[in-house]
Amino acid sequence: MQKSLHLNPEKCTGCLQCEMACSFENYGVFAPAKSRIKVFDFHETGRKVPYTCTQCDEAWCLHACPVEAITIDKMTGAKVVNETTCVGCKVCTISCPFGTINYVQETGKVQKCDLCGGDPACATACPTGAITYIDANWTGLDKMKAWADKLGNQAAA
Protein backbone atom coordinates (compact mmCIF):
# COMPACT_ATOMS: atom_id res chain seq x y z
CA MET A 1 0.00 0.00 0.00
CA GLN A 2 1.45 3.34 -1.07
CA LYS A 3 1.19 6.17 1.41
CA SER A 4 1.53 9.89 0.92
CA LEU A 5 1.74 13.07 2.91
CA HIS A 6 -1.60 14.75 3.45
CA LEU A 7 -1.34 18.46 4.19
CA ASN A 8 -4.28 20.20 5.87
CA PRO A 9 -3.62 23.96 6.04
CA GLU A 10 -6.70 24.51 8.20
CA LYS A 11 -4.91 22.74 11.06
CA CYS A 12 -1.53 24.46 10.63
CA THR A 13 -0.57 26.93 13.37
CA GLY A 14 2.77 27.89 11.85
CA CYS A 15 4.76 26.38 14.74
CA LEU A 16 7.49 25.18 12.31
CA GLN A 17 7.94 21.87 14.13
CA CYS A 18 7.77 20.16 10.73
CA GLU A 19 10.64 22.28 9.39
CA MET A 20 12.72 21.64 12.52
CA ALA A 21 12.10 17.88 12.40
CA CYS A 22 12.93 17.72 8.70
CA SER A 23 16.22 19.60 9.02
CA PHE A 24 17.22 17.49 12.01
CA GLU A 25 16.31 14.23 10.25
CA ASN A 26 18.29 15.12 7.13
CA TYR A 27 21.16 17.24 8.46
CA GLY A 28 21.31 16.67 12.21
CA VAL A 29 20.64 20.35 12.98
CA PHE A 30 17.56 22.39 13.85
CA ALA A 31 17.67 24.81 10.93
CA PRO A 32 14.43 25.59 9.08
CA ALA A 33 16.44 26.96 6.15
CA LYS A 34 17.66 23.39 5.50
CA SER A 35 14.18 21.88 5.68
CA ARG A 36 12.62 20.08 2.71
CA ILE A 37 9.17 21.14 3.89
CA LYS A 38 8.26 24.79 4.25
CA VAL A 39 5.44 26.65 5.95
CA PHE A 40 4.29 29.57 3.85
CA ASP A 41 2.90 32.48 5.83
CA PHE A 42 0.11 34.46 4.17
CA HIS A 43 0.57 37.65 6.19
CA GLU A 44 -2.61 39.32 4.87
CA THR A 45 -4.87 36.56 6.18
CA GLY A 46 -2.75 35.08 8.96
CA ARG A 47 -3.04 31.65 7.35
CA LYS A 48 -0.09 29.25 7.45
CA VAL A 49 0.25 26.60 4.76
CA PRO A 50 2.75 23.70 4.86
CA TYR A 51 4.03 22.54 1.48
CA THR A 52 6.56 20.06 0.15
CA CYS A 53 7.03 17.70 -2.79
CA THR A 54 3.78 15.96 -3.67
CA GLN A 55 5.60 12.97 -5.19
CA CYS A 56 3.42 13.47 -8.26
CA ASP A 57 2.84 10.65 -10.72
CA GLU A 58 3.97 12.83 -13.64
CA ALA A 59 7.35 13.39 -11.94
CA TRP A 60 8.52 16.18 -14.23
CA CYS A 61 11.67 16.46 -12.14
CA LEU A 62 12.58 12.82 -12.74
CA HIS A 63 12.00 13.04 -16.49
CA ALA A 64 13.84 16.36 -16.82
CA CYS A 65 17.03 15.26 -15.06
CA PRO A 66 19.70 14.81 -17.74
CA VAL A 67 21.85 12.50 -15.58
CA GLU A 68 19.00 10.41 -14.11
CA ALA A 69 19.85 11.47 -10.55
CA ILE A 70 16.19 11.24 -9.50
CA THR A 71 14.76 7.77 -9.12
CA ILE A 72 11.63 6.23 -7.62
CA ASP A 73 11.95 4.48 -4.26
CA LYS A 74 10.06 1.24 -4.84
CA MET A 75 8.98 0.97 -1.19
CA THR A 76 7.59 4.49 -0.70
CA GLY A 77 7.02 5.75 -4.24
CA ALA A 78 9.08 8.84 -3.38
CA LYS A 79 11.09 10.52 -6.08
CA VAL A 80 14.56 10.56 -4.51
CA VAL A 81 17.62 12.62 -5.47
CA ASN A 82 20.84 10.62 -5.57
CA GLU A 83 23.34 13.23 -4.42
CA THR A 84 26.35 11.37 -5.84
CA THR A 85 24.80 11.41 -9.33
CA CYS A 86 23.32 14.95 -9.17
CA VAL A 87 25.45 17.51 -11.01
CA GLY A 88 23.54 20.52 -9.70
CA CYS A 89 22.31 21.70 -13.10
CA LYS A 90 18.94 22.76 -11.58
CA VAL A 91 16.89 21.52 -14.54
CA CYS A 92 14.62 19.66 -12.09
CA THR A 93 13.98 22.87 -10.14
CA ILE A 94 12.80 24.53 -13.33
CA SER A 95 10.64 21.58 -14.35
CA CYS A 96 8.82 21.27 -11.01
CA PRO A 97 5.55 23.23 -11.31
CA PHE A 98 5.24 23.43 -7.52
CA GLY A 99 8.69 24.78 -6.67
CA THR A 100 9.42 22.06 -4.14
CA ILE A 101 12.93 21.12 -5.29
CA ASN A 102 15.60 23.41 -3.95
CA TYR A 103 19.21 24.06 -4.90
CA VAL A 104 21.59 23.88 -1.94
CA GLN A 105 24.45 26.35 -2.34
CA GLU A 106 26.73 24.57 0.14
CA THR A 107 26.60 21.22 -1.66
CA GLY A 108 25.99 22.35 -5.22
CA LYS A 109 23.20 19.77 -5.41
CA VAL A 110 19.41 19.80 -5.16
CA GLN A 111 17.22 18.51 -2.36
CA LYS A 112 13.59 17.45 -2.15
CA CYS A 113 11.36 15.47 0.14
CA ASP A 114 12.11 11.74 0.09
CA LEU A 115 9.41 10.83 2.66
CA CYS A 116 12.20 9.96 5.13
CA GLY A 117 12.25 6.41 3.83
CA GLY A 118 8.61 5.84 4.77
CA ASP A 119 8.48 7.52 8.19
CA PRO A 120 8.23 11.26 7.50
CA ALA A 121 9.69 13.25 10.40
CA CYS A 122 7.41 16.21 9.59
CA ALA A 123 4.25 14.14 10.08
CA THR A 124 5.56 12.66 13.33
CA ALA A 125 6.47 16.11 14.68
CA CYS A 126 3.27 17.94 13.70
CA PRO A 127 1.34 18.58 16.93
CA THR A 128 -1.96 19.52 15.28
CA GLY A 129 -2.29 16.81 12.62
CA ALA A 130 -1.87 19.33 9.79
CA ILE A 131 0.62 16.88 8.27
CA THR A 132 -0.26 13.19 8.21
CA TYR A 133 1.09 10.18 6.34
CA ILE A 134 -1.87 8.22 5.06
CA ASP A 135 -2.97 5.70 2.46
CA ALA A 136 -2.39 7.43 -0.88
CA ASN A 137 -5.81 6.36 -2.14
CA TRP A 138 -7.53 8.46 0.55
CA THR A 139 -5.71 11.78 0.42
CA GLY A 140 -8.74 13.48 -1.13
CA LEU A 141 -11.29 12.03 1.31
CA ASP A 142 -11.52 15.18 3.46
CA LYS A 143 -12.13 17.34 0.38
CA MET A 144 -14.81 14.96 -0.87
CA LYS A 145 -16.51 14.98 2.54
CA ALA A 146 -16.41 18.78 2.75
CA TRP A 147 -17.95 19.04 -0.73
CA ALA A 148 -20.66 16.51 0.19
CA ASP A 149 -21.43 18.50 3.36
CA LYS A 150 -21.86 21.67 1.28
CA LEU A 151 -24.33 19.82 -0.89
CA GLY A 152 -26.42 18.79 2.11
CA ASN A 153 -24.88 15.48 3.09
CA GLN A 154 -27.23 14.17 5.78
CA ALA A 155 -27.72 10.74 7.23
CA ALA A 156 -30.42 8.69 5.55
CA ALA A 157 -33.74 8.54 7.41
From TrEMBL:
* UniProt xrefs under PROSITE patterns: 4FE4S_FER_1, 4FE4S_FER_2
Q: Where is the signal peptide?
A: none
Q: Name one Pfam family in it.
A: Fer4_11
The 4Fe-4S ferredoxin-type domain covers 3-32, 44-75, 77-106, 111-136
Q: Name the UniProt key words of this record, in alphabetical order.
A: 4Fe-4S, Electron transport, Iron, Iron-sulfur, Metal-binding, Transport
Superkingdom, according to UniProt?
Answer: Bacteria
* Gene Ontology MF terms: 4 iron, 4 sulfur cluster binding; metal ion binding
**What is the protein name given in its UniProt record?**
4Fe-4S dicluster domain-containing protein
Q: Which organism is it from?
A: Rubrivivax albus
Q: What is the lineage of its organism?
A: Bacteria, Pseudomonadati, Pseudomonadota, Betaproteobacteria, Burkholderiales
